[in-house]
Amino acid sequence: MRKRTNPRLTHKLILGTLVICIMGFYCFTAQTHHVTNSVSMASCAQVTPHVHVWNNSSAEKVTCKPKVNLMFMKTHKTGSSTMLNILLRFGEKNQLKFALPHSRNDFFYPSSFFRSQVKNYRPGLCYNIVCNHMRFNAPEVEKLLPGDAAFFTILRDPAELFESSFHYYKAYVPQTWRIPGKNKLSEFLTYPNRYFNPEGMNSFYLRNLQFFDLGFENHLEVGDPRVNESIEYVAKRFQLVLISDHYEESLILLKDALCWQMDDMLFFKLNARRAVAVSSMSPELKAKAREWNGADWKLYQHFNATFWARVEAYGRRRMEEDVRELHRRNAEMEAICIDGRGAVVAEDITDGHMKPWQPIGEATILGYNLRADIPQQFSELCRKMLTPEIQYLTDLGVNLWITRLWGWFKDNVLS
């Protein structure tokens, strides 16, 4: 007797195949266009229109001019989504011009960045802020911004980052699928060369991801002279490198460097995982992760040292006072904005617009519920502080049809 096919499954497979074909064709043709048109386009006109930056805080004495031309190199799994929210709010409040992606929420990562990937780009256009995920390509980015633009990025301890990226992206990296046992992370780090193929699909997620994001080769061994050369390049190109492991101190240094106010630095932690989804790592396993990600570890050590040198120059006591003030202000906003005073799992979020993007096969990313009794003067701010990245970009007018198509396929076919 012939087995009856499941019509729902057949329907899903047909739709899934169609989605993959459409996305593959679009990405191929778009990427070809980016490469062939990247040389002849004119640079940014280098003239910055006057921008009035709103100053709502009389308690802070402003003795410098706030910087509005910014390039934030958004690295993966470093708390960068929270930083993105800060920048989007600042840009909106001050009516700044964003260089936004088109059709998806990144600039065709993992391909190198080209100006033609910017939504509605025309040769000679100048922007104030570039802040979405990309694989950094300095010459192309520089041509979008005035010459006085401040470049900054954020790094994280490679051991912590590897644990996060390994779990978040494992469904996108086929070479992880064959790792045996329940603790795939430990197995991989114990025998990385047994499982790692640098030519494999999305292999960059498995080694020196921060190096890769910054535009360098991620397969370099730590003793390769190109590692030191790359670190020196980052030190020259970026005016400030933040450290995710010391987030509040990073924001205070950024506030000082950009001449912003404490109001501009308020944040809620976005795109964070449930605690039960985070694997505990022994000191030995962390050491293996740092050794395997040797280029990232060397990069992190260098800029962690420069970070604390900046803290010393800022003043330890002054830093402690400012961090306490940031904590206090964030706690005030939490009481005003968040129902239940904390993050919740996706299924408990009542407003669909506030639900964060989830990795394939599991809903581990937390989000928030807005209070129903938010005072009117805080209503807009609360909503923007809690809006996930995908929804915020949509609110800014980005047509994320590829991201949303992939999201449908991920949630309805793969899951």
Automatic annotation (TrEMBL):
The keyword Zinc-finger does not apply. GO terms for biological process: galactosylceramide biosynthetic process; myelination. InterPro entries: Gal-3-0_sulfotransfrase, P-loop_NTPase. GO terms for cellular component: Golgi membrane. The keyword Ribonucleoprotein does not apply. GO terms for molecular function: galactosylceramide sulfotransferase activity. It is a single-pass type II membrane protein. Keywords: Glycoprotein, Golgi apparatus, Membrane, Signal-anchor, Transferase, Transmembrane, Transmembrane helix. It is found in: Golgi apparatus membrane. Belongs to the galactose-3-O-sulfotransferase family. This is Galactosylceramide sulfotransferase-like.
